[in-house]
Structure formats: C-alpha cells, structure tokens
Amino acid sequence: MDNKINNQLNQWSGKIKETAGKMVHSDQMELKGKLQVMGSEISEKGEEIKEKAANKANGIIDKIKNERGR
C-alpha cells in the first residue's frame, strides 16, 4: 500500500515538474518531470507483477497442500 501511495505522489510531482518546465520553457525541468512519471509508472507495473506472481504462487502451494491432504 505504501508503495502505491509513493508511486502516485511521484507521478503527481513529476507531472507538476513537467508542466512547470513547459511554462517556464525549461527543457531540463520538463524532462526531469517526464522521467519521474515514467519511473513511477514502471515501479507501479513492477508492483502489479509482484502481486500477481505472489497470488499465483499461493494458489499453487494451496493446490499442493490440498492434494497431499487427500
């Protein structure tokens, strides 16, 4: 949960930097904002993959336990 909140905050912060960079015509600030947003999105996808893998592994473990109990 904390990672999701941190990722969301980083995305918002990055979007603010990107917009501010556009407003003051600073390519460097705009790029930093875009990179921050991209990094947060990648991290978010990584968290989703990790969660799916954990669910799948737990399902397999439960299936093995159930088969042993028969």
TrEMBL record:
Domain of life of the native organism: Bacteria
Cross-referenced Gene3D superfamilies: YjbJ
SUPFAM superfamilies: Hypothetical protein YjbJ
InterPro entries associated with the record: YjbJ_sf (IPR036629)
Protein name, entry field: CsbD family protein
Source organism of the structure: Anaerocolumna chitinilytica
